[in-house]
Amino acid sequence: MAAAPEPGEPGKGKPFKLLGILDVENIPCAWDSILYGSLGSVVAGLGHFLLTSRIRRSCEVGVGGFIMVTLGCWFHCRYNYAKLRIQERLAREGIKNKIFYESTHLDPARKQTNGGSSSN
């Protein structure tokens, strides 16, 4: 029995596209941003309607809430995603350097242990 495809994997079935152009399945943070924006729209519009009973203005507030929450979520998520990618890159480079310089005269760990034992 084949395992179910993970969301975000390219080439697995037909991707879900919003408005026919935004591929929310393969773009990091898009799905969460749209989901939270929709929830923000409902909360803002319904809250405004309950407070004022003005239908048209409540719809406008709902659209504004969607835009604000979606953009806020998008920028927050993309910032954290970029930070994570930088940390992963630094860790990869560190592991590569550790493997490359291990047991050579350029190994920083070897210099620290040799320097500490020669001072005694």
From TrEMBL:
<keyword id="KW-0812">Transmembrane</keyword>
<keyword id="KW-0472">Membrane</keyword>
<dbReference type="GO" id="GO:0033617">
    <property type="term" value="P:mitochondrial respiratory chain complex IV assembly"/>
</dbReference>
<comment type="similarity">
    <text>Belongs to the COX20 family.</text>
</comment>
<keyword id="KW-0496">Mitochondrion</keyword>
<dbReference type="Pfam" id="PF12597">
    <property type="entry name" value="Cox20"/>
</dbReference>
<keyword id="KW-1133">Transmembrane helix</keyword>
<dbReference type="InterPro" id="IPR022533">
    <property type="entry name" value="Cox20"/>
</dbReference>
<dbReference type="GO" id="GO:0005743">
    <property type="term" value="C:mitochondrial inner membrane"/>
</dbReference>
<protein>
    <recommendedName>
        <fullName>Cytochrome c oxidase assembly protein COX20, mitochondrial</fullName>
    </recommendedName>
</protein>
<keyword id="KW-0999">Mitochondrion inner membrane</keyword>
